[in-house]
Protein 1
Amino acid sequence: MTIEKLAIHGGPKTITKPFKPYNSIGKEEIDAAKTVVESGVLSKFLGCWDPDFYGGPKVQEFERACEKYFGVKHAVTVNSWTSGLIAAVGAIGIEPGDEVIVPPWTMCASATAILHWNAIPVFADIETETFNINPKSVEANITPYTKAIMAVDIFGHSCDIDALMEIAKHHNLKVITDSAQAPAVYNKGRLTGTLAHVGGYSLNYHKHIHTGEGGILVTNDDEIFERLQLIRNHAEAVVKDKGVTNLSNMVGHNFRLGEIEAAIGIQQLKKLEGFVTNRQDAAECLTKGLKNLTGLRLPIIKTGYTHAYYMYPMILDTNLLGVSREKICTALEAEGLTGLVAGYANIHLLPMYQKKIAYGSRGFPWTSDICKRDVNYDKGICPIAERLHDKDYIGYEMCLHQLEKEDVNLIVKAFEKVWRQLHTL
Ligand SMILES: *Cc1c(COP(=O)(O)O)cnc(C)c1O
């Protein structure tokens, strides 16, 4: 058999045309948006204690539909999941200087939401298997100042929520789950995002379902529910008339979702399970095709869990292969493969944490006396996350494309071609 020359060495590309972009929006969403636009009422929120404090008819219909789907007592929509995370940290009663434990492998907003209330993010390392926060590292990072855990269901696989809730119970902490990448994902038969004190999902354009921008908070706690709604909608102006006496963090925002987005969200929610199943089918094909390549570790799904494959996470055994990740990625990209990500994130290494400059220029909150100890953000505090980011991890962004079977076959072909000629890189 003659071996086809790699594209990087001047041979033909394996993938010659771009895959179809992922698009979850159909006729139902277009019709729903049109009906709202024709009504002329694009938002009905009022930032005072009034029936319209809770938003317009579509916002409320969407929230009731979310409660039903996610099987929770309360859902609160917001204009982004970043807003949702900020509202969640405020609602659980975090005080300035409190420590909240968060993984470094997530989108920056998981940690920024903590800083927003002048609380201190403390980074715990991740598990190699699922890339989620490691409960052992959480325990090792608990101090007398720890008040909460911000867990993330990264890439679409649930974190070990049972272990985290157990730790939280023991140390009297609250748990928030950031399930932006993991809607319709199951952890022992239960939907991720619904198992902490408060959790939720992103409705940003890049997520499984979207409304352009938006987010959904879910909780079974009546008090957190009320506080989320207050923070969403100008809390400070509403508390007196509503008779709210606990004024902590009753600093309100405009985190309100519009009626057009809510109407689209109602339609998107109906399609969520189907979209996730399609993604899972494509990922399974990919796993079948790639599973015999040496030195390539494919996504692991823990027993009793499901995976939504926001990302298709892989680990290279670069020692065994004798080739760097960068060379492998460059060769795959030359074959026409787009959406590869070498490394993911190490939030503790962002300039804001390295220089400890957040609010103002003088190091607030770290240099203020609300911060009770010198929190370490040095390289080395999260060795697994750092090694994966620097050396071994490659992700394939499954969220970018509507992958057909032929597309998956081409991806597999590109990997096989490169793997056969790794020694030439
Ligand atoms: C997308 C994302 C967010 C932010 O959501 P937005 O709706 O874009 O504000 C937060 N956390 C994680 C893990 C995400 O993937």
Protein 2
Amino acid sequence: MGDKRLIYLDNNATTPTDPRVVDAMLPFFHNVPGNAASRNHPFGWAAEEAVDYARDQIAKLLDADSREIIFTSGATESDNLALKGVFEMYQRKGNHIITLKTEHKAVLDSCAKIEKMGGSVTYLDVDDKGLVNLIELEKAITDKTILISIMWANNETGVIQPMKEIGEICAKHGVLFMSDATQAVGKIKTHPKELGIHLMAFTAHKMYGPKGVGALYVNRKNPRVKVTAQLDGGGHERGMRSGTLNVPGIVGFGAAAEIARNEMDADAERLSKLRDKLENALHGAMEEVYTNGCKDHRMPHVCNVSFKHVEGEGLMMTFNQDIGVSSGSACTSASLEPSYVLIAYGLGDDLAHSSIRFSLGRFTTEQDIDDTIEMVTKGVNHMRNLSPIWEMYKEGVDLDAVVWSEH
Ligand SMILES: *Cc1c(COP(=O)(O)O)cnc(C)c1O
């Protein structure tokens, strides 16, 4: 990407593949060409052995049995398989699923499809810190409820849900507990059994592995959970997911899991210091800066910050030649929509539109953060100096009381 030093702070969108992961993968493109399902020659055996090894590496990261790891193409597929697979498998027991309004689209859109297939879905609100209300969660359970699906950590804000307490509620009512843990696995401890989680979706490319390979953890004992396959074919992955395994991708996923297990504590400690430095500097340098989401229950490498009276997409353009981040607006075909996650936190459209997500990663340096502080501060000041709204605010005009004319 040219000679210019670019700063990558969009690790929640995807992480760079760790060079050690790339090294582990390379032999499996050419030197080990086998199909892991070819059980009758050495090429197949070598591929199968590599897949088994990677499955163990991933199981160790989760403190799980390797037979509980089902490989998929990524977390989107894992979410689809968990939700639709449970809905189909357990329909005699009930048709009701509970989830949150702040879930990833892979969960929300799967739920919407399930509603079309005759399911019933409750979408719970979160509080202004982004956390589920446990009393409302328990009240939402009916005798038709088969599954509660709540993400471990939010992709936009890093807010971590109270997984242990949710697990206890699920156990008390005999409801399956599924979690989209894509943003948490490999970054913080994620041991599903300890917390009563029965299904857990995650993906390699959010934890320094390659894109296009993911997994679904499926609890094997007490209870033995089953999902109906969504892809039919050769009956791979214990009949839950057919398709030739992506051997190089899986090898990389395994290597990434092992590195994460060894290094996540050190990474988390280093990144939380850098994240705090960034966040504190932005708050210190300017007025009307807000952090979105619960600061006490948050991933160590993420901050989501709103700069009031500054339009986030415009702000990003002041530094996006140098820094890669995400804004709290999503481009839909017709318009710029404010993030539905931040709206669910109770932010107004203006604050949601003025938000930027900074997500640090293993390869973020202190220099990256120092430069980011400087460029973002400059950008915000520049935008505000051009803004008539900011001028009115500085003159003490009560902007909430102004009646804007409609066009
Ligand atoms: C990235 C992400 C996904 C989708 O993962 P893919 O592997 O890209 O399909 C799902 N859920 C969350 C929370 C994510 O952050």
